[in-house]
Design goal:
Elements lengths: L1 E6 L3 H6 L5 E10 L2 H12 L12 E3 L27 H6 L4 E4 L5 H9 L3 E4 L5 H5 L2 E8 L8 E15 L6 H9 L4
Parallel strand pairs: 1-2, 2-3, 3-4, 4-5
Antiparallel strand pairs: 2-7, 5-7, 6-7
Length: about 180
């Protein structure tokens, strides 16, 4: 099913999403990869504030290439989500409602998604140039010293993703195998 949602997310939208849904996100999302996650996690462990509000927001696991003249951002494809798995449960506990990446997640992330009524989306790997066309603005807001891994605030319009793990714990990577497996 095709769904159109606004970011930051509202609880009803998250609850209504189902594994396998095609979703088009419009609004504000943030980028953060390995180094930014590590820095945020360590700050939280030390009782310090982090540079973004997590409540109801979406983090896109992406490090863009440089923008071409007249463009908001360069190629903006997803990175492997499992590299952020050790940091994710804490961020979900603090109100993060969505993540965009590619690939599988650990069981602890899946159970934390259910516990916190959040969702994991996948963006199509290898389609970074096309995905960048849905990004209207890109602004580095924290950790500029990390280069492409700095935290960015993105304004997106109809950014295409697929629900992989919904807030009930249904996992497209597991159900798709069952649905399409052919027994000989």
């Amino acid at each position: 099913m095709n769904r159109y949602i606004k970011a930051p997310l509202i609880e009803k939208d998250v609850q209504d999403l189902r594994s396998g849904d095609y979703v088009y996100i419009t609004g504000t999302i943030y980028t953060a990869r390995d180094a930014a996650h590590k820095r945020m996690y360590e700050a939280l462990q030390n009782g310090e504030k982090i540079p973004i509000e997590l409540k109801n927001n979406i983090i896109y696991y992406m490090g863009p290439s440089p923008a071409r003249e007249g463009k908001a951002i360069g190629s903006a494809g997803p990175t492997t989500a499992s590299r952020m798995d050790k940091y994710t449960p804490l961020l979900l506990d603090l109100g993060l409602k969505g993540m965009i990446g590619k690939g599988k997640r650990m069981d602890i992330v899946q159970s934390s998604l259910v516990k916190n009524k959040a969702v994991y989306f996948a963006a199509v790997g290898g389609a970074g140039a096309l995905l960048s066309k849905c990004i209207l603005t890109s602004e580095v807001i924290a950790y500029d010293d990390l280069g492409t891994e700095a935290i960015r605030k993105l304004e997106v319009e109809n950014f295409p993703v697929i629900v992989v793990i919904d807030s009930k714990g249904n996992n497209l990577y597991e159900t798709a195998i069952k649905d399409y497996r052919v027994e000989y």
